[in-house]
Batch of 2 targets.
Target 1
Amino acid sequence: TGCLKDDSNLLDPAKTENVIEFANTANLISPTTSKYPLLSVNIVMDANATYNAAVSYSGAHNAPQDITVEVGVADPSVLAFYKSQVSAASSYTLLPASLYSLPVSKVVIPKGSRRVDFPINFPNPDQLYGKNYVLPLVIKSASSGIISGNFNTMLYLLNGINRFDGIYTLKYRFGANDRGYDLAPTTWYYSDVQLVTTGSSTAVMRNLNVGSPYPHAAVANGLPTSITGLAPLLTFDLGSNKISNISNNVSGTKTAVPNPAVTDNRFDPATKSVFASFILKEAGRSDMIINDTLIYKSPR
């Protein structure tokens, strides 16, 4: 070891060079063994949706000057090669050209910064739901700097979701019932749940707790249980954001209907909270009102 020279440049980030690449703007789900990276991207299915991919000047330094970067759609062989490496990608297909547009082909990373958005427009985002469409992009050129050899190409797996999709804190309580559940008007129970897109205007409520897919934990004789077989399916009016119907997404003896005494079941776009009052019906038991408030926490 006495004949080895210490090259501190290899350890000092300030003495390394930046690279121009696609930034990680979503959930990177590609395995480390794949040649190309793939991001799973949620696109809200509201009219004329836009997603901003990002081009990054990655490293220890800011851009020393304006850097013009040309971006385009990668060759279809990129997706074909990815599918040959990743068996789970067998259902992925190229996004049809009619379902997107690229308003620009060049973007500028400004001097002194490290990033710029590259917009992708979706005129009919409702067509993205359940399709496993992929858009491959490539950095074609840069006016200066080094283009990354690892993240110069990025695959975007597009998932259509509605505006209600997300992770929420569920705050709920029960009305009169013959199940022994707490009736105290001041008692509220809490759990984290998901609203999962099932269509452009529908979402099903799911529990995040492992082993309990049903969102409403109940209290019987002072002990926590769960209302099994009940996963509320909420249908929204996209114009008014009101809930037009509530049903049970699980087949069986339990059904659910909106509470007719409540006329303001809704999604509040300002707070992203959801208010839902409905009646649980089950043969051999009395009807039970369930009042839900879902407080938005984060994207799913």
Note: The mean pLDDT is 92.
Target 2
Amino acid sequence: MTTKVTPAQAVQRVRLGSIKDILLNNVVWLLLIFSIIIMGIIQPIFFSAQILSNILTQATVLGVLTCAISFAILLGDIDLSLIGTMAFTAAVGTLSLKAGVPWVLCVGIILSLGLGIGLINGILIAKLKAVALIETLAVKLVLQGAVMAMTEGRSIVDLPDNYKWVGQGRIFGVPFLPIVFIIVYVLIYIVWNKMPFGRSLFAVGGNANSAYVSGIKVDRIKILAFGISGLLAGLAGFLLSGYMGAVTSNFGTAYDMNCIAAAVIGGVSLSGGRGSVQGILGGVLLLTVIQVGLQILGISSFYVTMAGGIMIFLAVLIDAIRLKIQG
């Protein structure tokens, strides 16, 4: 015997479902607001302009890398080569700089190398059907080994001021890095929401076979996605090397898993086809707020690392719950 549902009950169920979806898709912002309030109550200095500026500055590199890996995750794949790409491109660029190449050309070299590495990843994965997890891991290890060989384990330091300005400079007293952060996210938003490539990216990630049948060039979308991912990794390498004023032997390794966590916490589904720029932004800010907040509270670095691991675990858990509820 079936129970008859009245129109009023049907409308109520739809409303409850909509509210549930809104909460699930924006849980990262609720967690961010909660974290900020708790940090501010414990340590009021957390609300100072200097600390907030520091959060945005530290979020920039993580934010760019999170955008980069989100292109691969949206396809239902993964790109583990990003840290190797950013380290290798930054090392080549700064070594060229030390050899007398103009800094503008060095930046071009960094971005071009990143794009090239990403395109190679995309071709191997799309055309040769290489498993993204293994292929990009192999590329990461090769590139990190190349960095060690080029630098012989020594840091590249004493970079010129004009190269470091983007990472350390200010405009009207405002750090320039957060401005880059905002520009990148605006551009990614336009690509994902206003351009045919963005719609095709989501379609391929949702169901590659259906996308192919509907006329989307699946291989081309994958190659372009990994190319953009590599380009953004190169940009992150430039920004981080400028901010640090050096390229070290463990360059960028602190971002290795955090960029994946930020993307997944922000709502980019590991199964592909789902995600938003605003969600990614929330995930990046949440991780950065927690890390900076723990440092301000004087928590040992060991616990900061543990907190990062917990956030990665929560990212996977949240993604699993979201997929189960939303189907």
Note: Strands lie at 170-171, 174-175.
